[in-house]
Amino acid sequence: MDHLEKMGRSPRDISLLILTHSHPFDHIWAAESVVEASGCKVAAAHEMEVSWIEDVDLQARQRPAPGLQSLVEGSVKVDRPLKEGDLLELSGLSLKVIHTPGNSKGSIPLLLQEDCVLITGDAVPVKGELPIYNDALKSGRSIEKLKALEGIQVLLSAWDEPREGSQIERIMAEGQKYISRIHKAVLKVSNGFH
Ligand SMILES: [Zn+2]
């Protein structure tokens, strides 16, 4: 909210909050405060993850990540569940929803069509950071799907600084290699326990 004020804007200027997926902390952590302060609607994550956003306790039971509840302020009602191909019209701009399972089953990058900007959430992991995924193979296939999008000018990822031009393909290819390397290492270690 302080940041909004510094920009000369008010929470009341927010009419829609879009959540790319249900993971806590850097994705849905402050959703409750934003909704409370702005009265905005919530469009969220692929419909597969809506129940985890609307009921954080359910997410904690079904996905028992350590300290999950302390990383989320609270649950929010999702006014508009999203799915592959949906188009969000925002005062003259259109955001296309792309479904990329892997990081979570319902992760949705968003493509700002007019400016060819791709907002990926967590769909593309960054080398050297802690990759989070529920299905590494699907995650790799999802990055392939994003690589196939034509004419992307700017890549905005939750894990990385904004990337432009030829950097975009490199970052996606590195992310793919990285997740496959991590997955192989995980399999090797977990097989060692059997
Ligand atoms: Zn995530």
Topology:
Layout: H1 2-6, E1 16-19, H2 31-38, E2 41-46, H3 50-54, H4 56-62, E3 80-82, E4 87-90, E5 93-97, E6 110-112, E7 117-121, H5 136-147, E8 154-157, E9 163-164, H6 166-192
Parallel strand pairs: 1-2, 2-3, 7-8
Antiparallel strand pairs: 4-5, 5-6, 6-7, 8-9
Helix pairs in contact: 5-6
Residues 21, 23, 103-104, 122, 132 line the site of zinc ion (ZN).
Estimate what percentage of residues fall within beta strands: 15-25%
Give the helix/strand class.
alpha/beta
In CATH's first tier, which class of the largest domain applies? Alpha Beta
The CATH topology of the largest domain is given as Metallo-beta-lactamase, Chain A
- Second rung of CATH, namely the architecture of the largest domain: 4-Layer Sandwich
Order of helices and strands: HEHEHHEEEEEHEEH
Strand adjacency order, main sheet: 4-5-6-7-8-9
Low-pLDDT residue intervals, each spanning 5 or more residues: none
Provide the list of bound ligands, each named once: zinc ion
DSSP helix count? 6
Characterization of the model:
The structure is a single chain. The protein is an alpha/beta fold and 194 residues long. The protein has 2 domains: 1-82, no CATH class; 83-194, Ribonuclease Z/Hydroxyacylglutathione hydrolase-like (Metallo-beta-lactamase, Chain A). It is built from 6 helices and 9 strands, in the order αβαβααβββββαββα. It has helices spanning 2-6, 31-38, 50-54, 56-62, 136-147, 166-192; strands spanning 16-19, 41-46, 80-82, 87-90, 93-97, 110-112, 117-121, 154-157, 163-164. Strands 4-5-6-7-8-9 form a 6-stranded mixed sheet, covered by helices on one side. A hairpin with a 2-residue loop joins strand 4 (87-90) and strand 5. The model has no long low-confidence stretch (mean pLDDT 90). The structure holds zinc ion (ZN). The site of zinc ion has 6 residues, from loops.
